[in-house]
Amino acid sequence: MNENHRQHPGQGARSLSERADELEHRMIDELEQRIVKSVLFVSGDKDPRTMNQPPPPGSKPDRRKFLMGDDPRLPKMPETPTLLDFFRNRFGSPNHVLQSATHALKGGHDEKTVLACLLHDIAVAGFIRADHGYWGAQLIAPYVDEEVSWAIRYHQALRFFPDEAAGYTYPEAYIRYFGPDYQVEDYVRADYEYARNHKWYMTSRLITLNDIYSFDPNAKVSWDPFMDIIGRHFKQPKEGLGFDGSPVAHMWRTIIWPTKFL
Ligand SMILES: [Fe+2]
Ligand SMILES: [Fe+2]
């Protein structure tokens, strides 16, 4: 039996994940403010219907204030955050998208396509994985050419459909990830059918083409080749992302303050 799974005295039959949960709760309990996770953060690990139960009778009431701003466990964001501030302080490793964009640049594609490759997975990196193409497209729509956000939205569907003429075969990795019998949902197929006849189809297809080769964790990548492209094609709001009153400002604010109580 693995040491991690061995039962220690006093630990009863609690699983590793229960113990990790308990440790996390203890860490959160030691903070000055009460941090309550959004349902979406834990839905599945927990059944949302069982959350927010009243405390067990006799337990000590928690009199701390609820967190309504910066989470002390995260780096503080600047007052007027830029796209790169989010990459630095709130997103996971940019390695994959930098590799994608580097491929696109070396392939001689136009700057809009390079930017689309650079931003295609920001929802996975910093927001929500499920339907990440749609979320990512929405996050950037007010700040980029419509073709860029369109391409990101539809790469979600296109990556499941080969286009041999364009050089895109169904990724080997997807057979490992999802099994040989995996079938996409109807809404994904419908969006693919729509996208393949669209004038911007190839921009979205190029995201998938530059995407699948970009998972080498040791690849040497840099932001340098992309700084001017971001400057030219990403309309950074002067008030900062999250504070410009755009239809998606609240989404950027939620990334800044993911544990704000309300
Ligand atoms: Fe993606
Ligand atoms: Fe990707």
UniProtKB/TrEMBL annotation:
Span of domain HD: 96-156
Q: Which SUPFAM superfamilies match?
A: HD-domain/PDEase-like (SSF109604)
Using the UniProt annotation, give all residue ranges assigned to the region (Disordered): 1-25, 42-74
Q: Which InterPro entries match?
A: HD_domain
The family database entries (Pfam families) matched by this protein are listed as: HD (PF01966)
Q: Where is the composition biased (Basic and acidic residues)?
A: 16-25, 60-74
Can you name this protein? Answer: HD domain-containing protein
Species: Rhodanobacter lycopersici
